[in-house]
UniProtKB/TrEMBL annotation:
Belongs to the succinate dehydrogenase/fumarate reductase iron-sulfur protein family. Gene3D superfamilies: 3.10.20.30, Alpha-helical ferredoxin. NCBIfam families: dhsB, PRK12386.1. Its cofactor is [4Fe-4S] cluster; [3Fe-4S] cluster; [2Fe-2S] cluster. Pfam families: Fer2_3 (PF13085), Fer4_8 (PF13183). InterPro entries: 2Fe-2S_ferredoxin-like_sf, 2Fe-2S_ferredoxin-type, 2Fe2S_fd_BS, 4Fe4S_Fe-S-bd, Beta-grasp_dom_sf, Helical_ferredxn, SDH/FRD_Iron-Sulfur, Succ_DH/fum_Rdtase_Fe-S. GO terms for cellular component: plasma membrane. Pathway: Carbohydrate metabolism; tricarboxylic acid cycle. It comes from Actinokineospora auranticolor. This is Succinate dehydrogenase / fumarate reductase iron-sulfur subunit. One of its GO terms (molecular function) is electron transfer activity. Keywords: 2Fe-2S, 4Fe-4S, Iron, Iron-sulfur, Metal-binding, Oxidoreductase. Residues 5-92 form the 2Fe-2S ferredoxin-type domain.
């Protein structure tokens, strides 16, 4: 059944902005992105929003709904009561370009800082068969749609702009973990994870995991295992020596 919903939508640019009030029609089965599109069609034709797939797969429509990091296309209007005011704001951690669109280039910078997959130089195609357990482990991480909601949520950068230089954020620490756990990757990623990527700043609050629309267990399956590897390397001389001598055969 259609009804009129109260919406507050942040409008502005890098200089300034404020919440604008709207009363807008909502129909059964709609998501927040439908309502933003209706606002564009009827009341605010120049309202800026980034989106592509409307299916939770492109990672473009990330924003905050009632203060919670969400994909606008996957947030059903039925999760709100009809008399509730729905507030839509841009992701807080990244600079605003206009309205709901933020500049997420911080993430691309961090992605470029991670050395790419480095298989043994002498390995010919077909020489190696991956164990199923290794395939499944990296498949979980590769479900990432790069929505950057985890990056937006992590308090290390959300509340501390000056940490952006030294912290890659959960999405890219997860990428480091994926490569570190790959049986054919020969790069030693443990020291860089702790130092260049700022793993030590993560205090495993799991906020990143809670907002991930792909339900990737970022903290449990990527960040904590990486922290364990850092600790092993630092405090266990036998593990350290073993890693040095048998690195590719013991990597797991
Ligand atoms: S678990 Fe670590 S990376 Fe994830 S939100 Fe918390 S501090 Fe950030
Ligand atoms: S890990 Fe999850 S929350 Fe983070 S960018 Fe990927 S899909 Fe988005
Ligand atoms: S529009 Fe693609 S994830 Fe929302």
């Amino acid at each position: 059944m259609a009804y009129k919903a109260k919406f507050k939508v942040w409008r502005g640019d890098a200089e300034s902005g404020e919440l604008h009030d709207f009363l807008v029609e909502v129909n059964e089965g709609e998501v927040v992105l439908d309502i933003i599109h209706r606002l564009q069609a009827t009341q605010a034709p120049d309202l800026a929003v980034r989106w592509n797939c409307k299916a939770g797969k492109c990672g473009s429509c990330s924003a905050e709904v009632n203060g919670r990091p969400r994909l606008l296309c996957m947030t059903r209007m039925s999760t709100f009561t009809e008399d509730e005011t729905v507030t839509v704001t841009p992701m807080r951690t990244f600079p605003v370009i206009r309205d709901l669109v933020t500049d997420v280039s911080f993430n691309y910078t961090k992605a470029r800082e991670i050395p790419s997959f480095t298989p043994p130089a002498d390995l010919a195609p077909g020489d190696y068969r991956m164990q199923q357990v290794d395939v499944e482990r990296s498949q979980e991480f590769r479900k990432c749609i790069e929505c950057f909601l985890c990056q937006n949520t992590c308090h290390v950068v959300r509340d501390h702009e000056d940490n952006k230089e030294s912290f890659s954020g959960p999405r890219f620490l997860m990428r480091v973990a994926e490569l570190e756990m790959h049986p054919l990757d020969t790069a030693d990623r443990v020291p860089a994870a702790q130092e260049a990527n700022g793993l030590g700043l993560c205090n495993i609050t799991k906020c990143c995991t809670e907002v991930c629309p792909e339900h990737i267990k970022i903290t449990d399956n990527a960040l904590i295992p990486m922290k364990e590897r850092v600790a092993d390397r630092k405090y266990d001389p036998i593990v350290w020596l073993g890693n040095k001598l048998f690195r590719r055969t013991t990597k797991n």
